[in-house]
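In response to the reviewer comment on reproducibility (Comment 2.3), we provide here a single inverse folding case reported in full, input and output, so that an independent group could reproduce the run without further information from us. The structure tokens appear first.
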């Protein structure tokens, strides 16, 4: 609910469990007064203190009142160059060379339903499920208008924000920085939690207390990156899974980003989140508008678990689109780790036949099917089948796969070009690169200039043709290198600072076109695994390949970190062969299944090589997954025990909304002789219900399972349990 007190100029956003408030003061400064656990309405600006602080200047309106300073007041959207020396949200470069952005309130407007952002992904809702507040600020001298957009989704405690910036003057204005979110906290007694790593080790959780100064994570790779995720948290130092106030903020964006937190001089803190200012410079001609990507925030008064469940709900219900929001995703087999580039039609059909016999529903042909590609150094851009490997092309192969009772899916990497491709021979300037510089290659390939409509048009037509040649019901949209030499032949020198962002807009444009040309095709996002696992991509691709690391034990940590913001149903997770290619570790098939089944499930191996008893286990896993799908897709997710270096079991629980069913998953780590007796306290059950645990005789009261715990059997190294709890 949005409550506007127009006389006092107080704006309060109420969600189920939280309150957010701001107030335009007597000088028109938009002050942030509160964000936290729900409180009744009222003017919370009484929390703000005024004091004469040395070296904190006073704006002109304050006259000689030395207690009024932009440097000490909590701001809703910080300017720059006008007396607030903390993290800026907006940096302008005006035609006279000045760099001041000083915003004042000019009005507000409330709307039913959720605002939308043209060309950008954003959360959405039917009119009766969300509201919008638009607060307008203006820098009167620069003649720049800033509309602050707030979307309020009461049920899931979600508040979204975006900023629309308009040049209302007669001369061009340059944006040097335009954050999507600025959030001031009265106390810096907070821990900063980020999700970091690299290729094959994405989204490890790191937690540190705020130290004086600015600390930040971000990406300048052109993609949201394997290294840092555009989702961060701040929390009370004592907060944990079930206790304490915590804040999560995600950028709904797939390119360069920066999440920065400053612990300032008076022990207050500021968070800003938005497009990374590195190499960002956007020219606004008179009348032009720039819209920032959306940021999504959830505050939980009861620990990380509740925050994650609310994010999961928000993503499932208000970010994922079309049929794949609710439809069960098919169990797939992917050719990559089974064959890499070494395949032809007979080999693929053998893999497919084995998989079909075991109950797999979708066969995905990964990299290596086009141009003359036999390794990763060639042919990107030439999106037609290699008839030497696949006589009759994709159509013939897809028909044979369909005849086995399976759907057919295909890998593509449409943002890339190889220098030996026909595409590059014809259009060398279509790759990002300043003309005078040699190329920097990544995985032997170059990046297409998606800022250019004609490049996107070419790729769109190639994909449209491809989708017509065969019955393709799934696409894996891969992206295997970071951006360098970011320069577009189609833009003048003063607009090169727009290329990173225009690239991302181009990717979104093409994704939208591909979705429109084949409605119902399931698209899985991928960037060398999890290099672009973000809420921006999820708007177009309802599942994303979580990591190129398919080792089940490493995956525990990757999926654990990912689960803080993203629902399990969005995480591509496959069972692969042992010993694992990345780690050399051998983990039982049962455990590989337990881990992969807590995501969008599939296999990435030659199933024909399995002994008969393992084939039976695969049949069983597929049946089991189908049965548990609804629970994993729409149930509540509880982290019970995190992956631990000391080898203690990792455990999590999926609980149905009515709390009548739950699925307990436990994976044992390294085991040493003489292990302790372990009891696992479950969560989210109905304390008054009696639950029967798979195969057990006894009934377990919910309160016993949650307060005293469930005694775990002794597990061998890397052994796992997948136990159903059903209320009777
Ligand atoms: C990177 C992906 O993450 C892999 O799954 C696979 O599709 C390869 N690319 C193919 O080149």
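Designed residues, in position order:
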């Amino acid at each position: 609910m949005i409550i506007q007190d127009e006389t006092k100029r107080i704006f309060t956003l109420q969600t189920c469990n939280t309150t957010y408030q701001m107030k335009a003061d007597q000088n028109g400064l938009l002050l942030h007064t509160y964000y936290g656990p729900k409180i009744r309405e009222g003017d919370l600006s009484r929390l703000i203190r005024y004091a004469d602080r040395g070296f904190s200047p006073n704006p002109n309106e304050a006259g000689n009142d030395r207690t009024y300073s932009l440097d000490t007041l909590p701001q809703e959207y910080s300017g720059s160059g006008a007396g607030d020396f903390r993290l800026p949200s907006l940096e302008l470069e005006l035609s006279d060379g000045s760099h001041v952005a000083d915003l004042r309130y000019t009005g507000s407007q409330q709307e039913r339903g959720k605002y939308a952002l043209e060309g950008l992904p954003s959360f959405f809702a039917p009119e009766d499920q969300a509201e919008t507040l638009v607060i307008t600020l203006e820098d009167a001298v620069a003649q720049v208008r800033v509309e602050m957009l707030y979307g309020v989704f009461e049920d899931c405690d979600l508040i979204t924000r975006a900023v629309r910036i308009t040049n209302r003057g007669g001369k061009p204005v340059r944006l040097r920085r335009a954050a999507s979110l600025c959030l001031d906290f009265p106390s810096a007694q907070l821990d900063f939690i980020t999700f970091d790593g690299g290729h094959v080790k994405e989204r490890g959780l790191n937690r540190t207390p705020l130290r004086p100064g600015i600390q930040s994570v971000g990406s300048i790779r052109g993609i949201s990156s394997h290294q840092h995720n555009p989702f961060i948290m701040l929390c009370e130092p004592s907060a944990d899974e079930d206790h304490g106030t915590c804040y999560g903020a995600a950028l709904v964006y797939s390119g360069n980003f920066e999440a920065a937190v400053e612990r300032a001089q008076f022990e207050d803190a500021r968070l800003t989140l938005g497009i990374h200012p590195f190499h960002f410079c956007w020219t606004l001609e008179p009348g032009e508008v720039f819209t920032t990507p959306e940021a999504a925030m959830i505050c939980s008064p009861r620990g990380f678990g509740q925050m994650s469940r609310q994010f999961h709900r928000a993503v499932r219900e208000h970010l994922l689109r079309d049929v794949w929001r609710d439809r069960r995703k098919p169990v797939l087999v992917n050719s990559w780790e089974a064959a890499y580039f070494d395949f032809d039609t007979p080999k693929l059909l053998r893999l497919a036949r084995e998989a079909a016999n075991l109950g797999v529903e979708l066969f995905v042909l990964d990299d290596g099917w086009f141009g003359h590609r036999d390794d990763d150094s060639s042919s990107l851009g030439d999106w037609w089948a290699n008839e030497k490997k696949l006589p009759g092309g994709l159509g013939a192969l897809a028909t044979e796969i369909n005849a086995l009772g399976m759907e057919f899916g295909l890998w593509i990497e449409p943002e890339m070009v190889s220098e030996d491709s026909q595409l590059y021979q014809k259009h060398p300037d279509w790759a990002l690169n300043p003309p005078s510089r040699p190329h920097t290659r990544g995985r032997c390939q170059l990046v297409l200039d998606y800022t250019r409509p004609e490049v996107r048009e070419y790729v769109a037509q190639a994909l449209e043709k491809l989708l017509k040649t065969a019955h393709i019901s799934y696409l894996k949209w891969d992206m295997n290198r970071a951006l360098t030499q970011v320069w577009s032949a189609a833009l003048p020198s003063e607009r090169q600072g727009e290329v990173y962002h225009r690239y991302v807009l181009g990717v979104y444009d093409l994704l939208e076109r591909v979705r429109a040309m084949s409605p119902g095709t399931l698209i899985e996002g991928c960037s060398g695994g999890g290099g672009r696992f973000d809420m921006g991509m999820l708007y177009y691709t309802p599942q994303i390949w979580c990591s190129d690391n398919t080792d089940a034990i490493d995956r525990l940590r990757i999926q654990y970190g990912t689960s803080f913001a993203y629902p399990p149903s969005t995480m591509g997770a496959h069972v692969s062969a042992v010993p694992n290619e990345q780690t050399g570790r051998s983990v039982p098939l049962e455990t590989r299944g337990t881990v992969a089944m807590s995501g969008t499930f599939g296999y990435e191996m030659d199933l024909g090589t399995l002994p008969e008893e393992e084939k039976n286990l695969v049949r069983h896993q597929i049946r089991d997954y189908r049965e548990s799908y609804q629970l994993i897709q729409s149930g509540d997710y509880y982290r019970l025990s995190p992956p631990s270096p000391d080898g203690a079991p990792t455990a999590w629980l999926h609980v149905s909304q009515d709390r009548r069913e739950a699925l307990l998953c436990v994976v044992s780590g390294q085991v040493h002789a003489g292990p302790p007796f372990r009891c696992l306290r479950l969560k989210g059950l109905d304390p008054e219900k009696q639950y029967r645990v798979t195969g057990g005789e006894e009934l377990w009261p919910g309160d016993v399972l949650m307060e005293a715990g469930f005694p775990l059997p002794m597990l061998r190294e890397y052994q796992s349990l997948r136990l159903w709890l059903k209320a009777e």
